[in-house]
Amino acid sequence: MSVFGALNRFISRLDSDVHNERSGPGFRGTFGFQVLRNKNHEIPIEPWYDFIIGINGRQIDDPDSHLFATEVRNCAGSTVTLTLWSAKGQRVRDLRVPVPTPSPTLGITLQWTSLATTDDVWHVLDVIPNSPADMAGLLPYGDYIIGTPEGIVHGESGLGELVEDYLSRPLRLYVYNHEYSVTRLVTITPSRNWGGTGALGCVLGYGALHHLPLPLTEPPAAPGDTLFETARFSDEETRPASSQSRPFSPNNDMYQPAPIQGSSEFLVPAAMSVPPPFTASAVTSPPISRPGRKQRYGISPSRAFDEYFKESEQKSKEEDFAPAAKATPPPPPPRIG
């Protein structure tokens, strides 16, 4: 475990260097205003995930919230440009928000905190059946444990320590699912007596390889639906959806195979022409007579392979100086005297 922990910390340092180089020192700061609540549903800002790190093109480096509110009030009647950093995918974006004149506020609650607080997430990699995690409804690969209302969880071992404190007691966890881009509150009861390994019964990943990814633009397909849209030609007819697909019927032309001809044992789709059946005469050539040369006769492919292998075997024996099976033994040495 120590080797994997050291490797994970090394990758985490490399990952932080990549983010610093990509975002630049003028955009991505160490601290920012984390959005805790958003009362204005017209502003596309997600609480907990979004951090305000800049305003009107300037990076925020002062934790005084009054200075931020003053800058917003100065933009009354126009728009204010907010630079947001999202924990989902660790991306930076600019957002233009109109500021009303009567009440020049944005309707959001902020807290000055470090962007590194969103690194304390645990990726659910596998869920054992009939385990506490399975009973709580945790989903492998798609779920991320991002926190708990019971307190602050910090570091790789923070969740394990919290679980030990709540053995045989209900524990509430905030779980984010990136496939549907939703956050839900899950209640799980850790136990050592459920019949398997661990108190939760799931495999968790932590570190740079398990940061929150970008959410999917669309939810995954339901059973029977097409996951990826394939390319189509302009003159191609639109295929019916899976819910409207035609059932199998013996009278349906789509499923009719081509008739079998001759001795062929291959099924050919109806849209393709049937090839002629394979016969030995198709590959046998008639004898060709040439002056001064012996006549050559066409042979079947199987016989040609047999003669080829025999010739190769004979050459190999000659190169290895292997004696023939019926070779005459050498004469005995002459007698002396």
Describe this structure in words.
This protein is 19% helix and 20% strand. It has 5 helices and 11 strands.
Number of strands: 11
Computed over alpha carbons, the radius of gyration is 37 Å
Termini gap? 87 Å
Instruction: Spell the H/E element sequence.
Output: HEEEHEEEEHEHEEEH
Keywords:
single chain; 337 residues; alpha+beta; six-stranded antiparallel β-sheet; five-stranded antiparallel β-sheet; 5 helices; 20% strand
In short:
The protein has 337 residues and is α+β, with helices and mostly antiparallel strands. The chain is 19% helix and 20% strand.
Topology, pairings included?
Blueprint: H1 2-23, E1 31-38, E2 50-55, E3 58-59, H2 65-73, E4 79-86, E5 91-98, E6 108-114, E7 122-127, H3 132-136, E8 143-147, H4 158-165, E9 171-177, E10 182-188, E11 202-205, H5 301-319
Antiparallel strand pairs: 1-2, 1-6, 2-3, 2-4, 4-5, 7-8, 7-11, 8-9, 9-10
